[in-house]
Write a structure and sequence with these properties.
heterodimer; A: about 300 residues; MetI-like fold; B: mainly alpha; 11 helices; transmembrane helix (chain A); membrane (chain A); phosphate transport (chain A); Phosphate_PstC (chain A)
Chain lengths: ~300, ~300
């Protein structure tokens, strides 16, 4: 009898607890959605204003080559070009290095490699971007200036700094993919008398290629959005560079340098927001590509 | 070329590149330490920066970085863990959960400068927080929350299902199971993840340019009234952090020893990040031992 009286009370307490927990955690998740919706909304509304309110034509913005805000010329092509070139080059430099590091850790010396290279990669990931920029400015730029024509600052310096920054991203994803590879795949290849390299090139790499590409895309996404390190070494000239050692600009470096010098609501300021909108849209593109690649990995 | 020779060449190339990566890191750390540490002394760590003269320090910047970090963690930890628990325990596989997962993924890959601009528009201007520690902390929360969500979710998933079943068998409510059974077991992983994320926050700069600002008012460390402009703990004062200071000194520094200051400040920053890494490992191991009673 006693128990029967207690049960409803216990139930009520349970239910109250349950509700508090549910409401609190749901609130946290809803907050995430609110944040992302408001970021997209605010950046888009500012970015679109350039075309909707100030009447700059979209094609002039995307394909125009002259950036002269004083004479009303808002061609952002040099910056878009700079962003794509530096992040592509960074991926081209970093990918082979990362794949080699991943192979070293999983295929060649699993013990020693994991113990030494793994912490190295983690540390590279932890170093703040301004420190990369500072080292680029004080070591890499003088080196490039001495060895190659030009000032040292420019596309090459930017790409090299970015490639070291995205190396950990690609390496860790490639390492994960390599170490989750079923053993019998490799054993079958060795069983046929293949050498280690034949196994790696013929079996291992083709199998993990989608995952490695995922890493490369994530690395490119990071390089595309990186601001300060690039700004410090790229030179920030508003034109399309004709050589690797020529000064250039990226979307992020232009925003960094000009946002605080322009008046909120002016055409020039809105044009900077349009560039931020391009960055935002590119993030969606990168995430989409990653999703597509992941779908391929599963099959 | 025979297969064996090819194999040897390929192995050589792989080893060469791996050693190159190690050499890059050792070279960078060595450079930062050799150039930076000689510049670090008590005066450098505690005194005010100079704009034109040589001999400026990084005292206020160091304090700002730490203060901003603490404020960010106070805001992020409860929210991130809450959302992580939702994802691990309440979310049912379906379209809504998949879209929340997508939100977390997109949010963590937004360029920091775009999030900073959002902070400038919404926090600094619309909400009128101004260039302040609070704006900075809120914007860093946006970065840090996806990380916390992922860490928490992962930690909860790694708790053995038997623990949960035991709780259910005892007739506990789901929330009670979460808070008193699953959470303590997941805690070591959450703490480790939080410290690693904290290292990231400490080095962040691009977003703070537009939210926490590029200046610091003259700080009076005897004034603990949180509403006074010169009080170090006032959350509504502008605060230039260490990483922002490095960027500013490098790109527009006028003092003759700008390069040395950047080197010293970089060394301090790198040492802090190393400490965060070691701390995360150490605490992770310590708590793991405590909770699993493995000696």
């Amino acid at each position: 009898m006693n128990e029967k009286q207690e049960t409803p009370l216990l139930f009520r307490k349970h239910r109250a607890e349950e509700w508090i927990g549910r409401i609190y955690t749901t609130f946290c998740v809803v907050l995430l959605i609110v944040i992302i919706v408001s970021i997209v909304y605010y950046v888009a509304s500012k970015g679109v204003a350039t075309f909707a309110i100030n009447g700059v034509s979209l094609s002039q913005f995307l394909f125009g080559q002259t950036w002269q805000p004083d004479s009303n010329k808002f061609g952002a092509l040099p910056f878009i070009f700079g962003s794509f070139v530096t992040s592509l080059l960074a991926a081209v430099i970093a990918s082979p290095l990362s794949v080699c590091a991943a192979l070293f850790m999983t295929e060649i010396t699993p013990n020693w490699g994991k113990k030494v290279l793994q912490p190295v990669v983690e540390l590279l990931a932890g170093i703040p971007s301004v420190v990369y920029g500072f080292i680029g400015l004080s070591v890499l730029v003088p080196f490039l200036r001495d060895v190659f024509p030009g000032q040292g600052i420019g596309v090459a310096a930017g790409s090299i700094v970015l490639s070291i920054m995205i190396l950990p991203t690609i390496t860790s994803i490639a390492t994960d993919a390599l170490s989750s590879l079923p053993r019998n795949l490799k054993e079958a290849s060795y069983g046929l008398g293949a050498t280690r390299w034949q196994t790696i090139a013929g079996v291992v790499i083709p199998t993990v290629l989608p995952s490695v590409l995922t890493g490369v895309v994530l690395g490119m996404a990071r390089a595309f959005g990186e601001a300060l390190a690039v700004q410090m070494v790229i030179g920030n000239a508003p034109h399309i560079p004709t050589s690797l050692f020529e000064s250039a600009s990226t979307l992020t470096s232009v925003i960094t340098l000009n946002m605080s010098n322009t008046v909120m609501g002016s055409v020039q300021n809105n044009a900077l927001w349009s560039m931020a909108l391009i960055l935002l849209l590119m993030t969606f593109v990168f995430v989409l590509i990653v999703r597509l690649l992941e779908r391929r990995t599963r099959i | 070329m025979s297969a064996k020779v090819k194999d040897r060449i390929a192995t050589g190339v792989i080893i060469f590149f791996s050693v190159l990566i190690i050499a890059i890191l050792v070279g960078m750390l060595g450079y930062i330490m050799v150039r930076g540490i000689s510049h670090i002394d008590w005066h450098f760590l505690t005194s005010e920066p100079e704009t034109i003269k040589a001999g400026g320090g990084i005292g206020p910047e160091l304090f700002n970085s730490v203060y901003l970090l603490i404020l960010t963690l106070i805001i992020t930890i409860p929210l991130g863990i809450g959302a992580g628990i939702y994802m691990a325990e309440y979310a049912k596989e379906g379209r809504i959960t998949a879209s929340i997962r997508l939100v977390v993924e997109v949010l963590s890959s937004f360029p920091s400068i775009v999030v900073g601009l959002f902070g400038l528009l919404v926090l600094v201007n619309t909400f009128n927080f101004g260039f302040s520690v609070l704006s900075g902390a809120l914007v860093l929360t946006i970065f840090n929350m996806p990380l916390m969500v992922r860490v928490t979710e992962q930690a909860f998933h790694n708790v053995p299902i038997e623990q949960k079943e035991a709780g259910l068998a005892m007739g506990l409510s789901h929330w009670k199971i979460i808070t008193s059974i699953l959470f303590p077991v997941a805690l070591p992983a959450i703490i480790t993840g939080t410290i690693l994320a904290a290292g990231r926050i400490f080095g962040e700069a691009a977003a703070l340019l537009f939210t926490a600002g590029l200046t610091t008012p003259k700080l009076d460390f005897t004034d603990w009234n949180p509403t006074s402009l010169h009080s170090p703990i006032n959350p509504l004062r502008p605060a230039e952090t260490l990483s922002v200071h490095i960027w500013k000194v490098n790109s527009e520094g006028l003092s003759p020893d700008a390069a040395q200051i950047a080197a010293g400040a970089s060394a301090v920053l790198v040492i802090m990040v190393l400490l965060f890494n070691l701390l995360a490992r150490w605490i992770g191991r310590l708590l793991y031992r405590k909770f699993t009673s493995i000696k």
